[in-house]
Amino acid sequence: MTGPQANYFIVTAALLILLAGESAAWRRxxxxxxxxxxxxxPWTSWSSCTTQCGSLGxxxxxxxxxxxxxxxxxxxxxxxxxxxxxxxxxxxxxxSGAGCDCSGTGFTGTCCDIAADVDECALGTDTCHDxxxxxxxxxxxxxxxxxxxxxNGNSCTDEDECALGTDTCDENAICNNTPGDYTCTCGDGFNxxxxxxxxxDECxxxxxxxHEAATCSNTPGGFACACDPGYNxxxNxxxxxDECALGTDTCDDxxxxxxxxxxxxxxxxxxxxxxxNxxxxxNECDEGTDTCDDxxxxTxxxxxxxxECSNGFNxxxNxxxxxDECAEGTDTCHExxxxTxxxxGYSCACDHPYxxxxxxxxxxxxxxxxxxxxxRNFGKFRNQCFWSPSHRTRKLNYTKARQECGSHGGAGALxxxxxxxxxxxLRNHLKRTSGKxxxxxxxxxxxxxxxxxxxxxxxxxxxxxxxxxxNAPHKIRDCVVLWRTRKVARWEIKNCGxxxxxxxxxxxxx
Length: 510
Prior knowledge:
Elements: H1 4-32, E1 57-62, E2 81-86, E3 94-96, E4 99-101, E5 107-108, E6 114-115, H2 120-123, E7 132-137, E8 140-145, E9 149-151, E10 156-158, H3 161-164, E11 173-178, E12 181-186, E13 190-192, E14 197-199, H4 202-205, E15 214-219, E16 222-227, E17 231-233, E18 238-240, H5 243-246, E19 255-260, E20 263-268, E21 272-274, E22 279-281, H6 284-287, E23 296-301, E24 304-309, E25 313-315, E26 320-322, H7 325-328, E27 337-342, E28 345-350, E29 355-356, E30 361-362, H8 365-368, E31 378-381, E32 384-387, H9 398-406, E33 413-414, H10 420-431, E34 440-446, E35 455-456, E36 479-484, E37 489-494, E38 504-507
């Protein structure tokens, strides 16, 4: 093979080799292509509303693919096009269909934006009160109450100038209110037009009615009558002086004055002795003439005495009976003590196993709850007894642990840690008891009734204090343990069927 044939063969072979190489590269690229899932880009801004006002307008927006699906990736779900209702605010009136309802606004037009003034005052279509003045305004009108009336124009009430003190009557005149105005009339003993009044001198004019043995004195708007010396009365009638009534006698303050013709007598009141002009108090308590009960205290008073039953007795002082403070519940014995009544008092004695003076009683947690052992595992904080088991005590699931704590009375429950002080107390308490060998303990917190809605054993919500170690999902874990190490203490959510040691919380008893 020579010449052109050889050259053709060489070129052909070279092309075949190149094509074979490109095909292999293409196959390699096909094998390495990665699927790209479609994702939505951000929404565009909303378009303009299709109507200017009313409630039938719509507006739209779109969103692009960013990126589109490729290499067999999942396509985007949903639509790239969104429409919603819209309308613009009616400047006057209310939305109605594709426009606005202009009724009663004084405006016209699709959007109630064209002033169509109507003179409601002239047409008599206003709502002004009968005693108000109507003034037309563009698109509306105003109402102002007339002089002498007050209100908003639609409702007007008469101003009582007399009651308000805005009248101009004389201070010695009587003001009489009238619709929208008032009148003035001078009072008795004065004369004038009501706006100016002058005093009548009844004594000079002889129009008074004083007794003949009395003296008349003129006063503004009237007169006064006073009986002459040696007489007494109101001036219109005068009689002989009654020194007792007039207080001109010389009787002691603790004596009774008795009037007599031209004179008077003085007699000491009961409880006093003397000549009437001088009277001294009688001390019935010292003289033993009182009638107080033996269990009462006698206290002398001016002219008499009082009897008051002694402490521990009740009655009117003349008769006193013992008060049973125990039966009436007025004793101050401790709630864990027994009250015993005594004459005029009572005594208190602490009930077993409490000790004290009866007014203050206390007991150790181990004495109150002998069924929980070992006793050394008790701790007391804020008058609450806390107990944790030893490593020998059988571990229980959450429900049985809660039942076990409740079976010992005293409102028993699993420990409820509602603040940092209780958390710190239990952390330190466990260091010297069960916590030496055990790390996790059931406490009284769960969300068994409502997922994520944690409640304490007493029914109260979790509140703002928690020490959860993790926020991990817990669909099948609903009960909480206190987990502690040497340095820290946290809460963990566990399966309620798991068995752990537990911490009981009971009433401290004082």
